[in-house]
Design brief:
Layout (H helix, E strand, L loop, with lengths): L2 E3 L6 E3 L1 E4 L13 H13 L4 E3 L8 H10 L8 E6 L1 E2 L6 E7 L5 E6 L3 H15 L4 E6 L8 H13 L3 E7 L3 H7 L5 E7 L11 H7 L3 E5 L31 H20 L4 H11 L5 E4 L4 H8 L8 H12 L6
Helix pairs in contact: 1-2, 1-9, 3-4, 7-10
Length: about 325
């Protein structure tokens, strides 16, 4: 495994980090607890020492499973990345969206990052995770109802108390990062990035490179689209959020698969899967520090980790980019 520093902090994380959204079951059509725990343990055995989670993933369930997965591991050898600022248990802040919990009960999710709420969220996360500190604490989404300086002052307080090591943001714009930095030093921004979603390369990537901020790329496999295993007419389970996304329209699946077939010979040449090639390409992109990759079971986690063994020359990267430039998805 390769390990990379988050910006100019002293926090090092694995270049491939375990994304534990699906582990909570929420919005992924359910899960299997023991397989989720097994996936995290298998990832660790392969050198993936970092796990990214959030309270809203399964309304606490993902964090609890992460806590179970790491409880017998040396705490200083594991990096826990979690978030705050999305509440399903109180109706405050900016309304986000309607959803259902894992029991099928309707819930409203709010973006809320006021000081008292954050302090309470941190205590809840520490308890669920079974730890006394969080390595990277990230606001999940911007909250338009709370001034950024109020949010970041709360995080600064938690940092001073030793409950978090570093402060990060997620889904923040350049302007929001600049505002946050008036109060606290940011280590990173976690944003969506994949072969078919590269809009951050316009302004966020240049800003983060210039200011030495890490970028944590989430959904680098575009929720499974870039594995090449999706087919037109794909059926998703009840509660699976992918059914409503443009990437999974039949025409876009077909166009993406046509692109993947063009780069498959390169994957075959390296004795790698398409998924492994995509992960390696992602962490080779300028400005991308780590790729967050989920896994349902130990086998998937092991395969994801082995993406680190794929080596790409500049010529091979250029070949992929040239083919990628020809791929256009429909809205």
């Amino acid at each position: 495994m390769e390990y990379r520093k988050l910006g100019d902090t002293d926090l090092q994380v694995s270049a491939i980090t375990f994304g534990a959204w699906a582990a909570g079951g929420w919005m992924w059509g359910g899960n299997d607890d023991q397989e989720a725990i097994g996936a995290m343990k298998a990832a660790y055995d392969q050198g993936i020492t970092s796990i990214d989670t959030a309270p809203v993933y399964g309304q606490g369930k993902s964090e609890e499973l992460v806590g179970q997965a790491i409880k017998d591991l040396p705490r200083d050898k594991v990096q826990i990345l979690t978030k705050y600022g999305m509440r399903w248990d109180i109706a405050k802040g900016t309304f986000g969206f309607k959803s259902q919990d894992n029991d099928g009960k309707d819930i409203d999710v709010y973006k809320y990052a006021a000081k008292d709420s954050i302090i309470q969220e941190c205590e809840n996360s520490l308890k669920r995770l079974g730890t006394d500190y969080i390595d990277l604490y990230q606001i999940h989404w911007p909250d338009e109802t709370t001034p950024i300086d109020e949010t970041m002052e709360a995080i600064l307080r938690l940092q001073e108390q030793g409950k978090i090591r570093q402060a990060g943001v997620s889904n923040y714009s350049v302007q929001q990062m600049q505002e946050a930095e008036k109060t606290i030093k940011l280590a990173s921004n976690q944003v969506p990035f994949s072969m078919v979603k590269r809009d951050i390369e316009q302004d966020l990537v240049p800003y983060c490179i210039e200011n030495n901020k890490a970028i944590l790329a989430y959904s680098p496999m575009e929720r499974g689209l870039l594995t090449g295993k999706m087919k037109a007419g794909q059926q998703f389970g009840e509660g699976d959020h992918r059914a409503s996304l443009k990437y999974f329209k039949d025409e876009n699946i077909e166009r993406t698969n046509a692109f993947l077939q063009k780069i498959k010979p390169l994957a075959d040449e390296k004795n790698a899967t398409l998924g492994q090639l995509v992960i390696r390409w992602t962490i080779e992109r300028p400005g991308i520090t780590i790729a967050l990759v989920g896994a349902r079971n130990a086998e998937q986690a092991t395969q994801n980790a082995k993406a680190i063994d794929v080596k790409l020359s500049q010529e091979e990267i250029q070949f992929i980019n040239t083919e990628l430039d020809k791929l256009v998805l429909v809205d």
